[in-house]
Amino acid sequence: xxxxxxxxxxxxxRKIVHIDMDAFYASVEQRDDPSLRGKPVVVAWRGSxxxxxxxxxxARQFGVRSAMPALRAQRLCPDAIFVAxxxxxxxxVSRSVRDILHRHSDLIEPLSLDEAYLDVTENxxxxxxxxxxxxxxxxxIREELLLTASAGVAPNKFLAKIASDWRxxxxxxxxxxxxxxxxxxxxxxxxxxxxxKVTESRLKEIGATxxxxxxxxxxxxxxxxxxxxxxxxxxxxxxxxxxxxVANRPTKSISAEDTLECDVSLSETDGWxxxxxxxxxxxxxxxxxxxxxxxxxxxxxxxxxLTRSFTAxxxxxxxxxxxxxxxxxxxxxxxNESQRFRLVGVGLSNFTEAKQxxxxxxx
Length: 363
Ligand SMILES: [Mg+2]
Fold this sequence. Notes:
The chain is an alpha+beta fold. Helix content is about 35%, strand content about 20%. The protein contains 13 helices and twelve strands. The strands form three sheets. Strands 5-6-1-7-8 form a five-stranded mixed beta sheet. Strands 9-12-10-11 form a four-stranded antiparallel beta sheet. β7, α6 and β8 form a beta-alpha-beta unit. α4 packs across α5 and α10 crosses α11 (about 230-235). The longest helix is centred in the first third of the chain and has 16 residues, at about 85-100. It is globular and about 70 Å long. The N and C termini lie far apart (about 60 Å). It binds magnesium ion. Magnesium ion (MG) binds near residues 20, 21, 24, 114 and 115. Magnesium ion binds near residues 20, 21 and 114.
């Protein structure tokens, strides 16, 4: 107990920092509009299908969470102030956070607008420890951007991610290499990143209620039950994660598709196209870059796949534009009265850097 294992003896212990902005979109709204401070703020679009993009800590006290239907949030917290998301502003703030991170390391892997891993095994700022780097970053974010971030410091990504959540909000938690097992053993299995509800209950079935209990389970049993992920669970239980921080891993495409309950004609695909376009649009708003190519995918009742794509001279910049393009792609499919469709998908690809707001019109 108390030592970290490395499968490769030459492997240098890494120093990883995970930075996670607190209630990011909601905090930006509260920062920019003082009348929202101290109040339950829910960032979500209006509409019956809308989901919560972010909730301030005041709203979370009522049980409001991200990804929850907006209507449910309204029921839980009738006094909540609903604010429409402004992703252009969040992206700009995210860029400023990224600039701060880059003062310390160029090995940065963003996970979303408000989260990133940094490998600070060697840091640019010359600070003595990873903990000091994390402290400094938190201080710079607070002073320069008037926002709070939580940070986790650990020997790998897996542990750093758990650590940043440990003292949230506005917290810092450090897992030293010598403390890994003491920290991990009592951890409820559901706290392991990547273990969702289903995996959690399947692990509990074999007695793995905590990480410590998971350590007692044979690798062969885990592999038999969970396939390749079983091997990963075996490692994670021991605090082992060799995944490196990968800088600039750009998203290649985003898509949403749905198999319909019953097959429909081409003209009846309307609602589904709109719905999938909305989903893809929401997901794309979390990207720092913008997509120029829209793809429509339809699967016929006899499983033939038809795709049509369109690369816009300028990326679609509203959901309505995206829907319009997706619907126009459908017009490029030969109408056939007898043909039925069982799946509808909409995708975005060909991501490119978003133009900075102050970029010249012609460059
Ligand atoms: Mg966050």
